[in-house]
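S.,

Sequence below, as promised.
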Amino acid sequence: MNNATKPSNDVSRHPSRTALVLGGGGSTGNAWLIGVIAGLYDAGLDVTDADLIIGTSAGATAAAQLTGASPADLLADALVAVAPRSAGPAGSGGRRAQGGPVTDHLEGRRRIIAAAEDAADMRRRTGAVALDLATTSDPSTQSRWRATVASRLPSQHWPARRVFITAVNADTGAPVVFDRHSGVDLVDAVAASCASGFAYGVDGGRYIDGGYRSNAENADLAAGYERVLVLSPFGGRALTPVEWGQHLASQVDALRAGGSRVETIFPESSADHLFGASAMDVSLRPSAARAGYDQGRVRAERLTEFWR
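The prediction came back faster than expected:
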């Protein structure tokens, strides 16, 4: 587990052309991400060929899915209507395993942020809460959650390309980035990145949602890449104070200051009802996927010149 730290972004050793950033956003966010990429693909732009894909929470699920299946097949799955259900971590792109509704989860985050001195303190406090919940949770939660995540992934193996999956060490609050060199199975990396409601154990370590690392996108990991495309189901919003520097806008400014060209795609305002408090409503996945698909089709022409 000592390898589960930030992988090297040394541009002299690694390709540094394009980076695709897939942000968190629950079940509907996952469907929207797939829709956007499928829309771009159908309009002639394949962004899954990025030199680096960064996935956080629901975006981690999407990253693993997109490296193992075609955008068309994933879109077809996302368009299948599913009845509402409960039970699965809040950031999972699926179901929630601990805690109450999404609104309660967000209120809990706000309380922790208000009490925290800085981002590191926030991560430590959040990890402590998750670890405390683990002492009273059903012992089968971990195995059930792993099985759920595994069922969503077309492949159980890390792809050869560079994929970063974000998480946070629940015991220390330290930011973590998994990749194929970390010694962690892809399923476990994604399950850890999606673990908002409890601390997910991997080889003796315990981890929580990658959105706690910096923000729902973690676009800072794309530093050194020439062109960065950020897909954010949350529209770049963050609950943390602006002065902490965790908002997507701050990270985009830093990337541009470092020489990167950056484009962002956010859900249209007409689709706001599909996200936020509704992010875990799986019955809204088809609507979110269609909304993303339409946006991808519209944005493809402009982004083609940028990406290529």
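The radius of gyration is 17 Å.

Coffee later?
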